[in-house]
Structures are given as C-alpha cells and as structure tokens.
Amino acid sequence: MSKYVAALDQGTTSTRFMIFDHGGNVVAVDQKEHKQIYPKPGWVEHDPLEIWERTQKVMQGALSKGNVSPTEIAAIGITNQRETTVVWDKKTGKPVYNAIVWQDTRTDVIINQLAHKGGQDRFRKKTGLPLATYFSGPKIKWILDNVAGARTKAKNGELLFGNIDTWLIWNLTRGTHVTDVTNASRTLLMNLKTLDWDADILKTLAIPRAMLPEIRSSSEVYGHIMGADGHLPLQGIPVAGDLGDQQAALFGQTCFKAGEAKNTYGTGCFMLLNTGEKPVESKAGLLTTLGYKIGNQKAVYALEGSIAITGALIQWLRDNLGLIQSSVEAEALAKSVEDSGGIYFVPAFSGLYAPYWKSDARGVIVGLTRYVNKGHIARAALEATAYQTREVLDAMEKDSGVKLTALKVDGGMVFNDLLMQFQSDVLNVPVIRPKVAETTALGAAYAAGLAVGFWKDYNELRANWAKDKEWRPVMDTKSRKTLYSGWKKAVTRTFDWVE
Fold first, then answer.
1. Is the separation of the CB atoms in 343 and 387 below 8 Å?
2. Nearest partner of 306 among 33, 65, 152, 82, judged by Cα
3. Which of 77, 236, 248, 287 is the most exposed place for a label (fewest CB within 10 A)?
4. Torsion angle, CA of 471/436/81/453, rounded to 10 degrees?
5. What is the DSSP letter of 228?
6. C-alpha 263: how far from its chain's center?
C-alpha cells in the first residue's frame, strides 16, 4: 500500500530528495551540494554527471533516513533549477559540455545579435520572454557553435537537449526524452499559445528540432524508474510530475486561483502570480510563463518577476568576503545595527533581471561613509531582497490590474525574521509563511500524486495548506517612500557598466 509521494528537487546549489505523506508533511529528506564551476567572469557551469550521481545518493539517503520501503512510494515528481542547459550524446549518455547554468552570461553576444533585428522583445509575442542570457535556447546555440563536432552531431540526430528535469527523467527512466510546459516555457523556443516548439525561432537560432524533448503536461506518468545501472532504489516507481522550481512552488502554495501569488526566496527570488487560462502580456518587464498544466486540463498561465541574486548575495558575503561563517549568521550581524546606515547594495552580479532586463548592469554598494561597518553591509544585503521584490510587485500590479492583499512566501530565507518584517514593511501587505516552507518539492510531489490518484483534487491539496507565521507592516508611509526612492536611485547607478 502506497503511503507516500516523493519529490526530487534539483536546485542551483544542491539536490535533495523529499518524501511526503498524504497530509503534505515531510517524512524524510536527504540533500547534497554540488560544485559551482566558474571558468571565466560571468560563466557558471555544473557537471551534469555529478548532479546525476548526487541524485542517486539522495534518493537512497532519504529512504534510509525515513526507514521507508520503496514499495510505500506511489510516485515521484521532479522539480528543477530552470533554464540550466544540458546537451548530451544520445548513445553514450555523456554530456558534450558542462551544464550552462541559468545565471551564466556568456550568450550576451548571441543576444545582442538577435536583438539587432527586432529589439529585445523580438520573440516576446510568441514566448512571453524578452531576449536575455537567462534562457536555454541561446545556451543550446552557444554549445552547438563552440563545442567541436556538436553541430554536425546535432544535425545527424545524435544529440539531445534538456533542462535539468529532462536530463534526470532521461536517466531515471533510461531514455524517456520529455519535458513539461513550465520548463519548455523557459527556453525562449516554445510558443505560449500552441505549447509546442516554434519552428521560426528554431530556424533563427539554428537548433535542430530532433534535439528537443517532447512537451507534456506537468502531471502525468512519463515513465518508470529503471536507472542506468538497473540498481536504483526506486525501481519501477512511476515518474509522474515535472515542474520548474518556481512553478512547483506556486503549485505547492496552492495558488490555484487567478490573482493568487507567491514569492520564493532562494539563490534568486521569484514571484509568480496566477493569471488563469489566458496568457497576460507584460508591459512592465515581467515574464509571461506557464504556471502548470495538470493532465488533460487547460494550461494555467502566470506572470513572473525573476530576481537573479538574493540568497546568493548572503553566500557571497560568506564565501567571497568572509563576513560570516554560515548563512544563518547574516541575520544576527544585520541586527547588530539599527538600520543600513544610509547605504544600498544592488547585487546586479549577472546584470539586472525583472523589471529592467539589463545584462550590462553590475553590482554596486552606494552611500558609503566612514560610519558604515559590516553590520550595515549585511543589513543592506538583506534589504536588497525586499526592495527587489517590491519592484517586481509594482510591475505585477501594473500588468494585471490586481492589487495584492497578502504575499505567500517560501524558500530558505523565509526563516529570517528581520528580512520578512522588512519585506512586509516595504510592500505594505502581510507576508505569510506556510507550515511546510519547502513548497517547491511539495508542488512536484502534488503533481505526481494527482497523476496517480494519491490525491484526488485541488480541495485535498488546499486542506493541507496551513499558516505558520505572519508578519504585518509597521513602517510609516513617509519612511517607506523615502527608503524606496533611495533604492530606485541606487539601481540607476548599476546601469551600462559593461561596455
């Protein structure tokens, strides 16, 4: 008898396997980090084989920790860092190059060439996306253009492409080459209306269609686990859910109605607003994306504001500056001062994402005086996350005409009380953290569970959602306005840095 559903959550810095019960509670979890590879400034890579190896380990680890038998698991769902691009050999299963990570900016030359004819919004009507280094399509083109022999092999049908979801499903099932609508909508290659690869864009980017996975819904049985060596612990279990990480969090937060929104605080920060069954074109610098598609039901769309660097800024304070020994120390250091001492930290390390989309921006700390100490820097780093979220929310309200009444939050940074209170103050709305804050994995588990009948409908999932903590705004209007206009001024100092 199946008692559980599991999720494989493959993120930017680590991979974990989580097992959930029918109430959406975490039964067991195992997690392992993988290497971040920086071959040149602006380049970020992962080793896909290392990610696959970590995947197998965490699956085994969570089963052991939870003392769970594989036969007790009804299905597994996959959720993944989006836009991170893998191209591999169909026969050998070996990648032809490292995975090019979503933060990587090496495709800026390709982007500029594409924008030369038709501008930054050249493909926006079809894809909902601006031209940016963020998305997978230009990364595929870079690999085909720069890896010896890759283009010829791709033309001969010998290479396959996938975001990380596709790479893992292919390995888990021994050869099922699929993705879901949410991941496909992040490639710059999928048409939002047809939910299929767009022939004109493929031609423009010179990407052979044969490389691309079949686009499926986010909740259906794609195949069963076999594993490359035939020894995976979950042999025969269906892989039945697939959602890009931010869409998985939207689903895990049970934002099933148009107008419901969530914000995930991870390496970057991602706010999604459910806009219902029709795509809403953004005029304010947001992405129009797929929210989810459950089996044969109609696809649900979302507006997304993507911020490149939030949690990664705290890691940077730890790893690059040595200001803290571990990420959790950031809050105590920030609390050692009353405020940010008049400084702003705009972390445009890989350019600015929503709502600016400026890949030539770079990070700045402004307003420095002799008075400023490391506590102020830590505080400004945390506040940067809240200000960037406010910019995205402003754009969302402009595009959708919907006033946000509360923000559901999840991800690693939501246990930072100082940040969550400041977030509520800057937005002037309540900020609500659910009981299960790891809603990304939960969303993937929900999609898989629905596909195999473990949960019967949305009502069952809604019943699982429970509030853990709520922060309400306490800042006065004048202070909010002054602080935010200072932030807007600071952002302009990052523009046009890279010639």
1. no
2. 82
3. 236
4. -140
5. T
6. 11
Name the 3-class secondary structure at 50.
helix
CB within 8 Å of 11: residues ≥ 6 apart = 80, 81, 245, 266, 267, 440
User: Among candidates 119, 222, 232, which has minimal Cα distance to 179?
Assistant: 222
Q: Which of 222, 216, 246, 211 is nearest to 172 (CA)?
A: 222
Decide if 164 contacts 81 (C-beta within 8 A).
yes
Q: What is the per-residue pLDDT across 2-48, written as a single tens digit (0 to 9) for each?
A: 899 999 999 999 999 999 999 999 999 999 999 999 999 889 999 99
Helices (H), 67-191: 108-116, 124-127, 136-146, 150-155, 164-173, 181-184
Determine if residue 118 is left, alpha or beta; phi over 0 gives left, psi from -120 to 50 gives alpha, anything else beta.
Answer: left
- Cα–Cα distance, 484 to 481 (Å, whole number): 5
Residue 94 structure tokens: 């070996």
**Which pLDDT tens digit goes with each residue over 169-215?**
999 999 999 999 999 999 999 999 999 999 999 999 999 999 999 99
Render the burial of 27-60: b for 16+ CB within 10 Å, e for the rest.
Answer: bbbbbbebeeeeeeebebbbebbbbbebbbebbb
Residue 404 CA to residue 395 CA, distance in Å, equals 12
Residue type, 178: V
- The DSSP bridge pattern shows strands 300-307 and 287-292 to be antiparallel
Name the token pair of 289.
């994306």
* Residue type present at position 169: I
DSSP state of 285: S
Helix (H) or strand (E) holding 421: helix 417-427
What one-letter code names the amino acid at 348? A
Contact 236, 74 (CB under 8 A): no
CA 251 to chain centroid, in Å, comes to 13
> How far apart (Å, rounded) are the C-alpha atoms in residues 305 and 412?
18
DSSP string, 166-211: HHHHHHHHTS--EEEHHHHTTTT-EETTTTEE-HHHHHHHT--GGG
* Separation of alpha carbons 292 and 447, rounded Å: 9
pLDDT beyond 60 at 228? no
Contact 310, 265 (CB under 8 A): yes
Q: In whole angstroms, give the CA distance from residue 68 to residue 52.
A: 22
Peptide bond into 48 cis (omega under 30): no
Is it the case that residue 229 has pLDDT exceeding 70? no
Give the rounded percent of residues in the chain with a pLDDT score beyond 70: 99
364-381 burial code (b ≥16 CB/10 A, e <16) = bbbbeeeebeebbbbbbb
What is the CB neighbour count within 10 angstroms for residue 421?
Answer: 17
Task: Give the contacts of 146 (CB within 8 A, at least 6 positions apart).
Answer: none
Reply yes or no on whether the pLDDT at 410 is more than 60.
yes
Query: Mind listing the pLDDT tens digit for each residue in 442-493?
Result: 999 999 999 999 999 999 999 999 899 999 999 999 999 999 999 999 999 9
Average pLDDT, the chain: 94
